[in-house]
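Q: I'm writing up a methods section and want to include an example of the input and output format. Could you take the sequence below and give the corresponding predicted structure tokens, formatted cleanly so I can copy it straight into the document?
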Amino acid sequence: MDVNLILNDQFVLVQRKSQMSLHQLPKRDGKQWTIKVGRDLVDLSTALGKPHGTFKLSRSEDNKSKAFALVPSSDVVEMKEKLKDLNSGESNKEIWDDGTSQQLKKEDIEELRGQGLTGTEIVSQLVENSKTFQIKTEFSQEKYLNKKEEKYSEWLDILKPNIRHLAKYFHSQDPMQILNLRPDTLAMIMSLANIKSNGKFGVFDGGCQGLITATILDRIQGFGTVWNLFLKGSSQKRVIQAMNFNPEQLKPLKNASLWKVKESLKKEENGEGDEVPAAKMIKLDEDAPQPLEFGSLDGLVVVCRRPNAIAKELVKLLAPSGNFVIFCPYSEPLCETYTDFRECNVAVNLKLTEAWFRLHQVLPLRTHPEVNMSGSGGYILSGIKVVS
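A: Here is the clean output for your methods example:
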């Protein structure tokens, strides 16, 4: 199976300019799979069997469907390239935003779309019917064209999901659905937890849609063990599913309820475990993971809103010199955990940090920070476990 091809029952990211959406392809061939990209209906099933990359929206004359078909394309021409020969003004001081500069009405634009005009042709019509476009400055013209290209571009990208794309996608949709965890903060967590192949790691993902677990699985690539711990119901796995992991990559994943783990560890600690006769013991494979027990993990990552109580319990599973990282969208709960760990002498190199990151808008004529950005990417408490 070619992993670079778009296949049935897989997740893909569909991107047009800054707009991005996550979709799962149909489970069987021959079924139309219509999605909405901006204002356009697109038949995603027409991309099946083709490599990930850039596609052009196409509508054949004999196709009665309102949805566009996807045709692989490498000749992407931006609208500003086609309209670069137009004149521009030196200042915008004579331009008034009174709503009368555009002569085309909404009904006229819909009629143009119904006639099958491409996005570039529609934008050309908008430019021709604008009273003020040619007296705008070059910078203002470029901003106008970028805004229209978001709506009417005839090209889009179908991307194979990876951790960076998914982290950016979920953060852009609703940051709090992943506890405001930014991609740069996620990279810090992986570094501070010392995630590497052939390790044994524990994860408590209390609200990140499985993003932390998926990132660890992606990094170790089938070598090691990942204990995905959860409290109620089942573990969070939305991002794990979206990554299209193969069975070999999912082999290290072990889901475990914390209540059952705590019960078995308590029996072990009190010496209440029943001895199993040798004749009835099940023979394990050589590469089978060792059971979860005190001091058995090489690394631990805890992500939730109120981590103090659960972090103090889970750190017992960490081996001496093992790295732990606790992430929370708020600083106050981590301050409490920091104080408790210091008083108990649980760890060395104990640090409470906040990652600060600022996006910049990059344009040929001007570069400046984005006007809107997240205030915080959350807080990280990290350290190395010691035995006193």
